[in-house]
Amino acid sequence: MTAQAVNRYLVVEEALRAAAPHALLDVARVHLRQLYQADAVQLLLADYALTMLQPVAELPYTSKPIPVNGSTPGQAFGAQQAFVEHRSGTAVTVHLPVTVRGDRLGVLALDLPDVPEPDDVAELTRIARTLGHEIVVAERDTDLYLQARRAARLTLAAEMQWQLLPGRSCGRSEYDLGGQLEPAYAIYGDNFDWSASAEHLTLALTNGMGEGIDAALLTNLAVNALRNARRAGVSLADQAALADQAVYGQHAGRLHVAVLLLQFELKTGRVEVIDAGSPSVWRLRDGAVECISFEDQLPLGMFEDTQYAPQEFQVRPGDRLIFVSDGVHDASSPAGERYGERALARAISVTRLLPAAQVPREILQQLSGHRSDRIPEDDAMVLCLDWHGTGA
Question: Name one Pfam family in it (predicted).
């Protein structure tokens, strides 16, 4: 990168960091116009269902959304690389993925008078990433970007569940993760959580019993109890036991939470597992799909002072793990066939070439076809983990 390019990037970066939370796009527009001759700059954020890219505009409404499928911005979002779209004469629109540590937020679109040089595209891609980081920080102080993502109104339960998530995708050299909840605007009990350190990746997949706000409240209690225990530095078994006590202490056995806890050792691929409920695990290895079964243990909060014992299994570089809630594997076709029996294995195989961040959305779309678009009886969660290992 040339000294001029570095200087331009630093000017934009400093301006974004100094901008008011709601004014990030306005500040980006000013500097991209001055430094890169951008005629127009548009920020498109992925909606909760990951089917539309919503333009950020003045509150309380956004402009007309753009579908992810079949659009050039959607290509940039899905492939996570810049796309140059030719317009009239020499003018082009450059579509840049806005991504933070593997979490795909949306696309930054710039109208430029000429095709940019490869170094300029790389520099603009870096600016788009910086904008993404500032959006994540700004969401603490403004609703602008969260509102822009909404293609419809969220139920209160869904609002609670989406705010509880760590993100919808993330990536490190050892692994890539992607997850999705459905129905996106009315989810209630299903959720997923993750946390990584230098040595471990911990996953928690939860499903609070019931429907609506009651299920969302129950899941919030369980997830925060698990986080509290995890941050205390205790073992996986103790994390489950402490969360179990929290749920039982609140509901005295009347309500419980299904949970699947996993802790991956990043150096070796050794995994500790506590299977305390309905979320299930499927593995794609060397082209073969199989369901991995563990010893069933009691859901959180069913009885007082339940003790949990972890089991172990091993992941290898190249493995793909798919985690699904009962709203996926128990969903039935009009003919009564459970999705988890054959259709889920087929969906995992069909999506094997997609990156982890795209897999959950595709599997849930195939689930919708399996149900023949009938109204789902339960909410659904899919999480995809691609394991690369420490040699990646």
Answer: SpoIIE
